[in-house]
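Support reply, case 0932

Customer input (verbatim):
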Amino acid sequence: MNQPFHNIGIIAKYASPNMAGTLASLIRHLKSHHALIFLDADSVSGLTGDTYELVPRSQLREECDLIVVLGGDGTFLDAARSVAGFNVPLLGVNLGRLGFLADIPPERMLTSVDKILAGNYKLEERFLLDGSVIRDGEVIYRDFAFNDVVVTKRDVARMIEFATHINGSYVSNHRADGLIIATPTGSTAYALSGGGPVVHPALEALVISPICPHTLSDRPIVVDASSEIGVTLNPLNTNPVQVTWDGQNSLHLEIGDQVLIRRSEFNIKLIHPTDYDYFSILRDKLHWGGDHFLR
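Our regenerated output:
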């Protein structure tokens, strides 16, 4: 039996279809368990009620021993980055399209919550990336990513040129649309679309995947999670380039900028129902196999 939860935070993509009904149902159910409820003020602005407290995200992550995320994987990614370093676990209810991270369907939300609040759940830890941009010897921007840090072209349909280093050792020059550095969690996101492998989340590894490389032999590679990946723009590059964190935060890069990506010191704790199975998620979301196969 795991630790039960009492102080419950909720982060919701309130503009999503069916969100109002799902949120109201969850709040009523949590109150029936005598839970203390905190709602993220930024994501549910304008909502009023006397059965919960609206608080800023900074307070939410300090007050709660569990945060429920209502929305799609994008909402979950934003939530994960915002709680980095606060050791509060996340539970995802999928109101989006895929649901790799927010893996509980709405129809199972209440029964899953019953079991999880009672301490019947699986706890999993996954690591974040720490991505920094260095300009003229100084770090000008730093952020976390749960899925990936991506260096990519911006505004034009032309390739960019850049070099990669791993732990200071030169790897290659690239002409491509960009480069994805992904965690095992992010291996089923942009990196997978770019031809990268599916990496089990328990592995201590990073995926480095070129985006539409000019040279067909420029293939994805998998390296140890302790590696530091360096990406530097070629001085001859004339096309606009940006770096993004989980596709949500971005920064324009200039010639001579270096992007350094390493494993973050922070992990994210995920809560799953006891019947959670990673391969079942893959079969469902990627449409592997079929009913005619024996299990």
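We compared this against your earlier run and they match. Two observations from our side: The chain has six helices and 17 strands. The two ends are 29 Å apart (CA to CA). Please reopen the case if you see a mismatch on your end.
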